[in-house]
Amino acid sequence: MTHPAAGAERVSKQFGATLALDGVSFVVGFGEIHAIVGENGAGKSTLIRILGGVHRPDSGVIRVDGQDRHFTSPRDAIAAGIVTIPQELRLVPALSIAENIALGALPVRKIGAIAIVDRARMHADARAVLAELGFDPDPDRPVATLGFAERQLVAIAKALRRRCRVFILDEPTAALEKHEIERLFAVLARMKGQGTAVIYISHHLDEVVAIADRCTVLRDGRVAAVSSRGDFSVHDLVVAMTGRAAEDVVAAPLAPGEVLLEARPNDAATAHVPAKWRPVRRQEHAPLKIRVRAREVVGLAGLLGSGAGGMLRGLFAKPAAAIAAGIGMVPGERALGLVMNQSVRDNILLPNLAALSRLGLIDRRAGDRIVAELMELVDIRPRRPELSARALSGGNQQKVILAKWLARRIAVLLLDEPTQGIDVAAKAQIHALIRDFVARGGGALIHSSDLAELARLCDCVLAVRQRRVVATLDRADGLDEVKLRAAIGG
Questions:
Q1: How confident is the model at residue 250 (pLDDT cuts 50, 70, 90)?
Q2: CA separation (Å) from 268 to 176, 188, 299, 318, 321?
């Protein structure tokens, strides 16, 4: 194989006034793991969407195995041997795990002249590829019943089932735990040994240092650096990405105030109601387990399948009642917290229309003033409220979700994987916004698979096993990743 597996030569792409890629050149070889890193908005997603056939470049050339290619759709890229696992998972919730994995390449058998789906083979194929990832669910289980991390494993399994020459993964470990990450790395090493080219996009820079043979750094739509294994560290990558060393936010202890939220885990009927508005009914056999006070950040930690994420989502099971009670929710999947084809302005104002309405008319001037103030406060870039939410980077989309709840002046903020899939600089900004929210008298409840994040950010963390809170770890007693992992059974 004398040619690179795939690459781009002087590729540019513009969306309106935004120049997403400016003359980017990139190649990945057969049997190579090549990482692409950069801040949100640096051009990573645009580049891999062009390689995956989602976007067409305005100028420049895409090559696969030395041949110029002009993809008009993702189907063209798949036919050329390029399979992409996007950050926004493309699964069909109503179908089963096995059906999703086989979708697009269903196994069939013939009965005479009639071809029917070979369900036994479909189940066997699903079990085999999921076993490579250490995941053993019922193949008939609907994808809609899975958590985000489990759906991510299904999406990866779907790609692994296809025979691909170039395998692109966009933030594949964002919601995975350590042993799932190790299993994925083992699978990638095996694919590399078989000659597959792997393009790996991640904001977890320690993973990039551990797994990548080469790394391309993008900044403002251009290539800022290309380095080989051994020539780059996490610090080097941060400096190349941002032009400066990133500063992390360490939680500063605050004096907790009144109880804002008390709830029994998994009790959707009462869990969303803060104590300051209506006390939750107490039962001796079901004591209250989750409590959030003013000026306090509480974490929920648990292994995959522990139910920790479900507990958080249960608190927002009745959104209208929860919002009326002063609770806002930042979901793990940004598409669930935004109307993607609506503007940044409309998304921020959506939960606040009643407050801006007078005799059925919206006070647009007041709305514009609120949006401008919040875009400046949370640093949403670019400062263009008319842009659709879909046009923003992941980190800026997350800021828009935060901004809409800040506009409503909610009392309790629920956050599910708040920094999943965003870069180190945006992560520090999100942490600072959360701490500022609680410093002003709010309370925050966070579920995160990143135990180091919980240890840095939270005043206390609730360890969850089998949908039960089994331990409370307080910052005053020492809070670190090792203690958290032991408490959740890791």
A1: low
A2: 26, 40, 19, 8, 11
